[in-house]
Amino acid sequence: MFNPRDIIETLANNVRQTTSPFGIPKFMVNKWYKDVNLPKEGEYMLITGLMYQFAPFIEKSTQYLEKYEGTKMASLLKYARYMPGYLSGIGLAMMTSGKEKKDAGQPLKDIALLLKKSKVNFAYRPDLDNYSGILLYDMGDQKGFVAHAKKIAQKLKDAGVKKIITVDPHTAYAIKELFPKYTGISFEVKSYFELLDLGSKDLGLEVTIHDPCFFGRYLKLSEIPRKVLGNLGITESEIRNKGEFTSCCGGPAESISPSLSNEIMEKRVEELKEPGKPIIAYCPICLGNLKKSGAKVEDLSTLLVRHI
């Protein structure tokens, strides 16, 4: 296991310098929208929080952490906080393949298509779409999180944003629950699947659903995707830990201890594989972490787009 303080201070330093926990300039991270025709004005503002876009960089950085965990090299991580954020971020971006970066944006394109299909009046402005800072909060750097959150919330408020659509559980929790508490600025926040109206079908399919912790335990929204799937004739396999009682995918631990993360992930995947049905996730962290096991896992949005 790495020293948590070394990890936290490195990530916090990157956020302060670049607004990204990995130090990668946003123009190198957020490209998914460039070949999608999206309006800039609407009732809701789509905010991705850059979490899907970060997924390949999380995977790449975790590979290096796995390599050095438990070795003498692990102690050198404490010096990473002194490296300019953009320098390390650009290096990480260059080591990540173009295909991985392109693939990471596909669920966002699928979500935009689903919203259009549901006739949701939404807009997208990349200048307003920023990382929420949630990882700082999760790792105990409340001061760093609050400073960052105030900047992001104020920027959205100044732009006249009142209603927000989120696409992942981490950003949803940050903007819906933490921003009002720590910044005093509130928005009406909906996760994209709460707004979907895809009609009804009788597909006769069965899937196994992995619920993210934030959607299952904290935001209590895990029944909504099931209703959307049910309307299309897609039923759910029975597993022990789901909804409010879901089990962690192991993803949140990967920056501190990849070996611990893998141990948690393997236990969860074993449970998800038991029914023998395709596994569905609706969180980019869960999706990436579960895929590492070799399990057949796809994003909720991908499944829905294929069947509308």
Structure description:
The chain folds into 2 domains: about 5-195, no CATH class; about 200-305, 3-Layer(aba) Sandwich (Rossmann fold), CATH 3.40.50. It is about 50% helix and about 10% strand. The protein has 13 helices and 8 strands. The chain has helices at about 5-20, 25-30, 50-70, 85-95, 100-115, 135-140, 140-160, 170-185, 215-220, 225-230, 260-275, 285-290, 300-305; strands spanning about 45, 120-125, 165, 190, 205-210, 235, 280, 295-300.
Find the structural class using helix and strand composition: alpha/beta
Beta-strand residue percentage: 5-15%
Shape: globular
Number of separate strands: 8
Global Rg: 19 Å
Helical residues, percent? 40-55%
Physical arrangement of strands within the biggest beta sheet? 2-1-3-4
Q: What ranges have pLDDT less than 50 throughout 5 or more consecutive residues?
A: none
Give the integer mean of the pLDDT values: 88
Give the termini separation: 45 Å
| Tally of structural domains | 2
List the total number of helices: 13
Order of helices and strands: HHEHHHEHHEHEEHHEHEHEH
Tell me the major beta sheet. Answer: 4 strands, parallel
